[in-house]
Amino acid sequence: MHDSDCGRIFALLSEYLDQELAPPQCVELEEHLRGCPECIEFVRSLKRSVKLCRQFGDCRPVHLPDADAMSRIRQAYQKMLARRGGARA
Amino acid sequence: MCGHREDAEEVAQETLLKVFERIDQLRDPSRLKAWVFRIAKNECYMKRRKSLFAPSAELSLEDLKPARSADGNSLGIEIADWTALPDELLLDAELQEVVTRSIRQLPDTYRSVVLLRDVEGLTTEETADVLEISTDTVKTRLHRGRLALRHSLDGYLRTTKAGGLGDA
What we know:
heterodimer; A: mainly alpha; 5 helices; B: mainly alpha; Arc Repressor Mutant, subunit A; 2 domains; globular
């Protein structure tokens, strides 16, 4: 497989993984992948990187605001409810 | 996006307050998520006193390609053994730290897109809406950001047993 082929599909890999690639480009890319184990390996590693980001997002610890901040947030929330209740009345 | 957890927590609080104060300004409820994230982004930039238009480092596509093999005819095989990572691997503390550091090291413009798309799970359109850029720009920055992350994680895998290369 020639470098120019690999290079051309290299720019399209994220759109391919996100299923946002136009059908003709998708066909071309998959044809290339069928004959290029190195690109397949690269796509797998890129896909794994994206998955790690998603897992990272899911496992972040949640820190609740302190009592003072919670009080301000509650007040703002209550004001919003009162405003919207008043608007509907 | 803020760079520091303490700043991020303050930004989250200020964002909630502004959401409650300004909810009546939201015209299209289907855009709630993007609207909230846009408020958070603006708060974050204000916190950092940084302009939305401040220059950010550029990532070159060419620099993010894996090293070529010796014959120069292919993308190359200088890729760590990613199969050593089980597909459903839970992030242990070390790997979580590596991912955190890799994301943090991305230039601002790429980091914000990666965070919104791959960490927060926003769509391309929602991300474009939040960051006030075109969808094509989102796609370009996302791809380069992902490649930079992959490069960084690949380097980690090469130097650990998880990559299978530490035993070599």
